[in-house]
Design a protein that fits this description.
Pfam families: TetR_N (PF00440). This protein is mainly alpha-helical. The chain has nine helices and no strands.
Length: 190
């Protein structure tokens, strides 16, 4: 029951935001009375934060699994990860929810949510850093140290996220392609 409540809550929070989602709607979709939600969650804030935690944990698991592929050339791994982000925005409710909430958190939960977002970002940095360390060892990149390369790549990824949230996949793709080309050329030039 708890899992179904969270699944339906994610759908409503993702599509309607915190303010636009109601516990009554969620309960109706689950097939229970609104009061039954309170036997599992303290209230809307608690449910929202549990759903967000689940989305962010899934994001980390996905990213870790993807970015730790050792059998994929560095250039392909990083380029494909940018593009898979764009695909996931259309296909995965949890990814879309987490990304939107990082830009538009409910005001009264802003600090709590941003702490969670920054924790995820802090977890992502070592994953990307290890790729750049590998790239330097394999002499694939030349122009920067591993940490600078990792942070610059994460900045490109952040730009893609901004475009996804504000403009949609088409604009995100055209900007990602342009940024990637210049970014990679800069890393590999001597």
């Amino acid at each position: 029951m708890k899992a179904e409540i969270r699944r339906q809550a994610m759908k409503f929070f993702s599509r309607n935001g915190f303010e636009g989602a109601s516990l009554a709607q969620i309960a109706e979709e689950v097939g229970i009375k609104k009061q039954s939600i309170y036997s599992h969650y303290k209230g809307k804030d608690d449910l929202f934060l549990k759903v967000l935690d689940e989305a962010l944990e899934e994001e980390y698991r996905f990213s870790k699994q993807w970015l730790q592929k050792r059998n994929v050339p560095v250039k392909d791994l990083l380029s494909q990860f940018l593009h898979i982000y764009m695909e996931r925005f259309d296909l995965e409710e949890g990814f879309r929810f987490g990304l939107r909430m990082s830009f538009f958190p409910p005001e009264h939960l802003h600090e709590v949510i941003m702490k969670k977002i920054y924790e995820l970002q802090d977890q992502m940095e070592p994953l990307v850093l290890s790729i750049f360390q590998r790239a330097l060892e394999e002499r694939v990149v030349h122009a920067v140290d591993a940490r600078t390369g990792a942070l610059a790549y994460l900045a490109v990824l952040d730009a893609v996220c901004v475009e996804l949230v504000y403009s949609g996949k088409e604009r995100a793709k055209s900007k990602a392609d342009a940024a990637w080309e210049i970014f990679w050329r800069g890393l590999t030039s001597r």
